[in-house]
């Protein structure tokens, strides 16, 4: 007997949850420092272009697969793809990718959770604090980093164990609006500083002389990462969607929200960085080292730092929900056990697998895979190989292998777009997206091959 599939209670719940899946480390942690080290406004412009031209079509494709099959990721491809073809295994690829991604993602989530809790009683901002040393102290403490990892995974397991409407949708409806409210407060404060306009110009005024081929490829990779396409989490989310909801309009809403969060992240961070004479090209330490230093120099800095950290925590949680959901739903479809049990067991597995990444900054700092720590190797594998690889397979599957009548039905359902819009999207998916993805993929593996 086929298991009954849950559904989103509202279209808004689906959009907020899908946007939450996309908005996370990609938009708030990775986007600002990638923008900072890749030329500012020009990178942001190219990122928007790729999000619209490549990311959005791929997002629609995942929505089409999920609702077309009315199945979670693994079963969806097995139902729609030719038997024993490579395409029938795309769902497995996505589940494995989500599992690896969540394992190191939860490590960063643990760091943010620790920072957030420390900020409440005012333990972060003190006179003379060396924030780089503080970051090294926190990430270099094995029991603390493992405890942070455990706590973060625990929160995720609790939410996912409660299902779609009472778990993911319920909490996203609270966390996503709070995220935007906190962002607006931070941006409003950031824009009041003397010198803030220099940061805005850096972020919003494109200087295309700063662009090169590497920057452009990074912008395309960022568009994949920030929209959460390539590991089929959106296939699973859309499988819970009613047939009368427009997939294209929903995908546009999610993409616009993702761009808006990236915009707000830039407007919150770069004015502060420039106002206090800090370095925008700091890299991954931007949020943990540079911003605490900036907040320490402003009135009520601890309050605003605490708001920003909880904002960051909300964004990471809404994104990580989707990763644990694709794992849980796929196992739940195949195993005779309750969702509650599977969610907690999946969380335990993620925790165990994430321990090497959590220890990469301390006891396992000298352990390397292809010259990278366990944390960096996991990040590289997912971001540079599994995401673009999954995007390529999804584009080829929908463009060439999936039943075209079903594809058209799902594309047109719930909207009034003409056939011309479908043809443009379909051709982008068949030709432009695969070419761009292959270029990014080849450039990414060059680092491993040392070409």
Automatic annotation (TrEMBL):
Cellular compartment(s): Membrane
Lineage of the organism: Bacteria, Bacillati, Bacillota, Bacilli, Bacillales
Entry similarity comment: Belongs to the sodium:neurotransmitter symporter (SNF) (TC 2.A.22) family.
Taxonomic superkingdom: Bacteria
MF term (GO), any: symporter activity
PROSITE patterns per the UniProt record, alphabetical: NA_NEUROTRAN_SYMP_1, NA_NEUROTRAN_SYMP_3
Pfam family, one: SNF
Main subcellular localisation: membrane
PANTHER family attached to this UniProt entry: TRANSPORTER
Protein name, UniProt field: Transporter
Keyword Lipid biosynthesis: no
Keyword vocabulary terms for this entry: Membrane, Symport, Transmembrane, Transmembrane helix, Transport
Topological type in the membrane: Multi-pass membrane protein
Transmembrane segments: 12-31, 43-65, 86-114, 144-162, 174-196, 216-242, 254-278, 298-321, 342-360, 380-400, 421-445
GO cellular component, one term: membrane
